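Onboarding guide, step 5: your first structure request.
Type a short instruction followed by the sequence, for example:

Predict the 3D structure of this protein.
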Amino acid sequence: EEKVTLSVVGAGNPLKLSPANPSICFGESVTLTASGAYNYSWYPKDGLSASDKAAVIAQPKKSRRYFVEATDLNGCVFRDTLKVEVKNLPAISFVEKVDTLCEGQQAQIKLAGEAQYSWRPAYGLSATNGKEVTAFPKESITYTINATNAQGCQAETKLPITVKTKVQLSATTQDPVICQGMATLLTAPALDYNYQWSPALGLDKTTGGLVTARPEKTTTYTLYADNVSCVIPVNITVEVQKAEPLSIQPAAARICEGQSIGLTASGGKAYTWDAAEGLSTVSGPAVMVFPPATTSYTVRAQDSSGCESQASVTIIVDEEDFLSASASVASVCLGDEVRLLASGAEGYEWQPAPGLEMTRSAAVYVAPEDESTYTVIGVNKAGCLDTASLTVGVSSLKPEFSLVPDKIDLATHTGVVKFSDMTDGASQWQWSFGEGSESRDRNPVHIYSSVGSYTVTLKVSNGICEESIQRPIVVSNSSSLAELNDEGIVRISPLASGIVDLAMQSPRPMYLKLRLLNTEGIQLVSGSLRLSDELYRQQLDLSNFGPGEYILQLTDGLETYSERLQYVE
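The system replies with structure tokens like these:
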């Protein structure tokens, strides 16, 4: 007898799988059981304890569908399937945490995510549930955090916190009270600490057990140790006594080059002047100075507390060349104004006066008729005099050009016009031909193709002056469509395959424009025609534009001849 193997699934399938909808958390396992047959085969094998038993243990790492193929005692084959859903464990991560606390400190610990959290032990915690707690243990401890997500899966993590004992730092100062500008030593014990001093104001350095302090005012310094945790900083104050102020009279002075002036100090005792050029003596309250240039002089003395004070004065020496003059431009166009500007003095007078609107101002305006030199006399605060001169050039430009021809009949002329610049001294040209086009050539050539009266403008420049000139040009067209139509010599003949034959013969020269439009008025073809007594022929291929109706137009600029054309494939 021949045996036939049958596979049965769905209704009438004796193969039963349990549980029906297994669901586990990641890392857990579930027992899958098949019944109703004799031999069983599970696949895929990934995550299964066995593949040929009725009951197998499944521990997949992600959701997995398993298939079972079973055979009964009669050799019939049955199949079924079930899916094991693997749910993710909650992820425990910290937004804020600490691993070390100093004795008596507390810290906020925050967790991320939306799970339900529990903490243990409760010792040193503000709460045992929630994603945010305050920890204040008095001794080192390890907290265990349990998280349960919305799918009922749990995960744990541990947070060890070390509690350290505080250490008190110490420091001393060589001189707790100093005069302003003096220095003192700040000293810390010679321990294996990385000392840090703050603020840095007046310190030669901010690290180490020995630093030099030279503060400008009474300052409290704080000593830290950044390599030792849980240290208690120490403060040490350096009192700064400000010396009684000295004064020098005059407090400021301005003299002319070669002059001298006396200086007198007051407010202290035992005066000493720093060596400087032009100083008559270095001791005593009163000295004479003969500075060759602007010089600062400093005097030092002790006050009643023994602190040294000092004062300085700067004697400004005005040199002879303190005055300067400039022009807004080196050269101007004839008739234009130029701005003359002087600086460096308190008062000014310009020469020569003719042509100047003002003569006693730092800035004046003048319109020279030819190259001119101007001189300004200036006086500064010290009463010193100086002069400065400058020269202003004058330029002129007269534009001129020619055009050939200046009148055009398009019927007999090509429309080409030659323009020639005749301006003396120009270096830049800008032509406008009156119908929207331009050129920057010196001698351009332009083609007019439309009837009209145009104004040609030439703008020239030599880098200083810019002038322009205009000339008219008239473009006409004596061609006559009416004359051609009267003669009956415009013939438009449709040919095969969309070809249209245009034939014309004129008794005299004429210039016409041709356009082919569709019924929406969109121009498809354009061109110009020059006719004579010889037969002119041109063919238009309407098949380039597809079947439809077209309009062929001829115009002489005044009259328009239109012919409707039909193209059918």
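Each response can be followed by summary notes, for example: The first helix runs from residue 481 to 487.
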